[in-house]
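Notebook, bench 3.
Goal today: get a predicted structure for DUF1211 domain-containing protein from Aquirhabdus parva so we can plan the truncation constructs. The sequence was checked against the plasmid map this morning, with no discrepancies at the termini. Length recorded as 190 residues. Pasting the sequence as submitted so the record is complete.
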Amino acid sequence: MNTNRLEAFSDGVIAIIITIMVLEIKVPHGETLEALAPLIPVLLSYVLSFIYVGIYWNNHHHFMHMVHNVNGKILWANLHLLFWLSLIPFATGWIGENHISAVPVALYGFILMMCGIAYTLLARIVISVHGQDPKLAAAIGRDYKGIVSVIAYLSAIPLAFVNPWISIALYVAVAILWFLPDRRIERVLD
């Protein structure tokens, strides 16, 4: 089976995730700029989560261009990734509603860590199914960015109980690391 249905389904789920996040932002009561002040944590958590979901969508899109066919293992690994991504709106809303406090920020880090693990698992399964395709294996490489990301999330979870802003800074740093599409895949595709 080719990747068209998998990509279309994934794109649809990701679009719904973003829609759910934006619908959680409530309109302020009041017409002044001061009325926006209580929404600042909500807006900040939304922007960070939107960037994260966009990063996963972008990298998933590039990665799927390398995949020639899919089987049940790949479909389930992709669903595993989509499951963790689908929890981002919940954690985003919880962070915003509780003004960036420890437990919601730690949960957010746990969900981001599981997204990173799920993406790595998907990549490894795709490589195993494609028989160590040299192009695919070269595109993934040793995945240092993925390893650094998971370590940052793992560090950010307990740090949320010291100071949630340290964890947020780590999440932002990882997002910056991944902001541009993964060049390994683009080089192989070119």
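The chain has a mean pLDDT of 90. The CA atoms of residues 8 and 14 lie 10 Å apart.
Flagging this for group meeting.
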